Amino acid sequence: DIVMTQSPDSLAVSLGERATINCKSSQSILYTSNNKNYLAWYQQKRGQPPKLLIYWASTRESGVPDRFSGSGSGTDFTLTISSLQAEDVAVYYCQQYYSGPPCAFGQGTKVEIK
Amino acid sequence: EVQLVQSGAEVKNPGESLKISCEGSGYRFTSHWIGWVRQIPGKGLEWMGIIYPGDSDTRYSPSFQGQVTISADKSISTAYLQWSSLKASDTAIYYCARQLDPPGLRPFDIWGQGTMVTVSS
Fold first, then answer.
1. If DSSP codes are grouped into helix, strand and coil, which group holds residue A87?
2. pLDDT in tens, B26-79
3. What is the mean pLDDT of chain A?
């Protein structure tokens, strides 16, 4: 099974500042035939289901603000919130869908306001 | 509006059986895989398995194979997750979610509101 590891487990960022979350997969999730990374990012606010933010490592889901961006390839990926807003307080998860089952999630990163 | 609506919270005794549901609307239910995700309170997300309602093809995570059964009734656009004998360790929130356009494995773009299952004597 592919294991997804996020870092850090939590971070506190001032309003308007950048937040960066890392995600590492235990093996490459880049499918060379189509040059796509099978990596998604989700946001889960307290008491709510997760919400898809980004897929194919860098494609924003419809309606997601452009302050959210995804990057990386192979085994190392990053979710960046360019200017943290109060409504971005949440837990963020990465997920690989390169192989499975299971399509494992990372353990989550909690983002708070400093 | 595309949505998944799950059945309500359940409180059960250990050893009891349970079947929770997830009804899809606003899209062609038979054309998207539906998955189930477990979240123990205060913990992360665990991918349990998926089903393709069009032909009931089902895939399970090894961690959940034999512990739960995933099924679907396409005539009423509903997917199910069931247990034959609940344990206290099954206490969690269970989410159903729709995969992005097939084919193959994809992330979940639409999520149900979650069903809280509490197993306690």
1. helix
2. 999 999 999 999 999 999 999 999 999 999 999 999 999 999 999 999 999 999
3. 97
**Residue B73: strand, helix, or coil:** strand
Does A9 lie at the interface with B, CB-CB under 8 angstroms? no
Whether residues B107 and A52 touch (CB distance < 8 A) is answered with yes
A50 to chain B, closest Cα gap in Å:
7
In tens, the pLDDT along A14-45 reads: 999 999 999 999 999 999 999 999 999 999 99
Cβ A111 vs Cβ A42: under 8 Å: no
Exposed (0-12), middle (13-18) or buried (19+): which is B13, by Cβ within 10 Å?
exposed
Report which residue type is found at A18.
R
Q: Is A107 on the interface with B (CB under 8 A)?
A: yes
Question: pLDDT at position B101, please?
Answer: 81
The distance of A49 to chain B (nearest Cα, Å) reads 6
